[in-house]
Amino acid sequence: xxxxxTSETIEKTVREEWSQTLSALVYRIHDFxxxxxxxxxxxxSAWNSWPYSGIPKNPRAWxxxxxxxxxxDQIRRKESFAKKQSSIALLSELEQEQGEHRTDMEIPDExxxxxxxxxxxxxxxxxxxxxxxxxxxxxxxxxxxxxxLTEESAMGQRLTRVKRKIRDAGIPYRxxxxxxxxxxxxxxxxxxYFIFNEGYLASSGDGLLRSNLCLExxxxxxxxxxxxxxxxxxxxxxxxxxxHDSRRPARTNKAGAMISLEDQDRSLWIRENIxxxxxxxxxxxxxxxxxxxxxxxAVSAVHAHAPDWKSTDWPQIAQLYRTLxxxxxxxxxxxxxxxxISMIQGPQAGLKLLQELEExxxxxxxxxxxAAKADLLRQLNRYDEAERAYEIAISKSAxxxxxxxxRKRLQHLKKN
Length: 416
Known about the structure:
Blueprint: H1 2-29, H2 32-53, H3 59-76, H4 85-100, H5 110-118, H6 125-135, H7 141-147, H8 152-169, H9 182-200, H10 211-227, H11 232-245, H12 271-284, H13 292-304, H14 314-327, H15 331-345, H16 347-360, H17 367-379, H18 383-395, H19 400-415
Helix pairs in contact: 1-2, 1-3, 1-5, 2-3, 3-4, 6-8, 6-9, 7-8, 9-10, 9-11, 10-11, 11-12, 11-13, 12-13, 13-14, 14-15, 15-16, 16-17, 17-18, 18-19
């Protein structure tokens, strides 16, 4: 029983404290790979010692302390250590910290500092997002590879290269001064939303949600908002995530099965989140510095105030997506507009727009496209075509809960 409790505590600590511990460690030793290796060694030490010595009062502080000691050992083992003055200085700093038994793990922008480092303009956006998902969101390489629709080995190589680039280029581990924000703010916001979405619809695991990632993205957005009160898009992203997250209690049933937006019990939605999202939008939209996140938040707000699916103001939704396309022209935006059009003009009109998108070939790997196509074909009684579309959607879904709801729709279709 004690062994099981210890195992659960270690797993919980690693899952919940990985990112903040790693962020603090990277900040101290200025080397992503060394920090990650040292933390992995510390976790192994926990597995070996906690069952016998007992669980520390502050497991996270214990991990940080042991990981710093492991990092010191690795630095000492370097053959060229005597010739590297920077390593000598770093070793001295770390040893001094060890002597002081510092546990300063509660720096409010610890992970925000990590995100800004990952999003340095010298790093391409794809690598920035991947590295942040690894270090801040704590995703495994295989999970990130799934999110990027690539091989695990290729993603591992990408992560190794970008870690080395940060180290060799001497990219500083800091939240930069305000005059340097614009060159990387877009990437930072993109990363935060990516983290939120990974929590909102997990690309791995058995469940639909990884709520801790959603809440962490919202927390970081709040910190970022306080640091940049004159950036409407920061608040736009915060409003968007709050409005999306308001649906969390209604997105699954007691068994963990996914419930679509169309069928959710809206009385379960978190009203505080909706009210806060509305308040933010009322404050920033009059500034007329509109951006993609503000528009998406406005879409979510329209859904939040509709009493049910059919009563949604679909003309307004369609108009918002047309506006969003001007700021962020993509096939995904057109897909969402097509769904809104189908609610206004009927499934045939929506399907026509989907066929135009299909001819462009930009959504051939995008699961929601096939799910939307299947739903419209089903409404038009084109059951054989709908069945094939559902099967493709299922094959392209990475989340078991999402696959389950698509399978149920397919099974229902076959009964007709």
